[in-house]
């Protein structure tokens, strides 16, 4: 049971790190901050 839980936690950690890296790469490549993305998402509606 503990192996399943630790594997699940490791998977969540990898997904979280991947999301952070993707957002960081987008902000680097477009010179935008997370706030700019939030504003774009709000004004696109």
UniProtKB/TrEMBL annotation:
Phylogenetic classification of the source organism: unclassified sequences, metagenomes, ecological metagenomes
Transmembrane domains' residue ranges: 7-26
Record keywords, A-Z: Membrane, Transmembrane, Transmembrane helix
Protein name: Uncharacterized protein
